[in-house]
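Lecture 7, part B: from sequences to assemblies.

Below are the input chains for today's worked example.
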Amino acid sequence: MLRTQKLGEADRIITILTKRTGKVRGVAKGVRRTTSKFGARLEPFTHVDLQLHTGRTLDVITQAETLRPYGEALAADYPKYTAGSAMLETADRLTLGEKEPALRQFLLLVGGLRTLVEGEHEARLVLDAYFLRSLAVAGWAPALESCARCSATSVRAFAIVAGGVVCAACRPAGAAVPAPETIALMIALLRGDWPAADASESRHRAECSGLVAAYLQWHLEHGIRSLRHVERV
Amino acid sequence: MYEGVVQNLIDELGMLPGVGPKSAQRIAFHLLAADPADVKRLAHALLEVKEKVRFCRVCGNVAAEEECRICRDARRDDHVICVVEESKDVVAIEKTREFRGRYHVLGGAISPIDGIGPDDLRIRELMTRLADGRVTELIIATDPNLEGEATATYLARLVKPMGLKVTRLASGLPVGGDLEYADEVTLGRAFEGRRLLDV
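Predicted structure of the full complex, as structure tokens:
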């Protein structure tokens, strides 16, 4: 479940990222009533097994079974809740078309939410790893080990417009010059090297978050509203 | 499409929540057929509500004066504040006749995905009310959905260091429902909050 919007007296429009059909929007009738048969099953973050009846404009949700209720654990931990919200919003933005299969984005989101709930790694690290990998799945993986323009291995700066790290010769005006440890952290997050990511220092994590957020929003051509509220522990 | 003024009325009615184009048309024709005095009374009520109703400076509830009826009532318990999302939640709780304390209306719930953070709610005003030390218990009665729970978590984290008792409304099975239709989260909460039968 990606997001919900109120509709009429007691209904909700639910946006779902599905395993086989991609993003789907459906109506859950009467879900806001306390006696609703759906109860907490149709809350954002919940991994559900759904049955939908195809409608004219929107599908109608007829049955829902919970597979994993990630929302409950996330709502009880504010930094995780804000990080998870940014993940849902990004998944919504990266899957533009409705009913276009997006299996890798689906698996990445479910894996990301599970990692966030398990709490083995800092929420902000999980969020940045999710951003980097979802961008990679969408075809916008940043170049991190060699110059994005000439493939030179001696890199100096990070240029969002160039698509990642750049060498001194290719460096455009206004490119950021992050610490080498920050680039190493980004590589670790993209590869899923958690021991290296967990060992990183707080200042490099902050720098990494700033670069990843700017890179993500530049490619999406849209701000991620949740990012303003993401809380660092 | 109808003549100018009729279409204007249908368009304006169609802007109301839960009113679609067909309903708007039905209401418009009902008003056209209605007694002019009834329509004038409705128009007057609409204007009056915008002119006279404001938000209570203490709790944020809708009020006809500077302070709402509940904040002006000296018989209410000053030691307990119940935090709700909207004014309509105050009405729902008042109907139970179980609560005699004061209220605080936040004006919504924290929802980062909709761009609503703690600074967009009346949390700062709540902290100011709690600062005088008179309040001993804060009851968090935000909606039992994800945004409401996250808002409750945020408030509890903020208020607990002040030494206040922070409580949350119980969640569980709705009265009059069947157990088999309860979802896993609700049923789990009902088990967590089970109580001893005192017979």
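Note for the exam: Chain B touches chain A at residues 17-18, 110-115, 117-118, 144-146, 149-150, 153-154, 157, 174, 176-177, 181-186 (CB under 8 Å). Keep this in mind when comparing with the next example.
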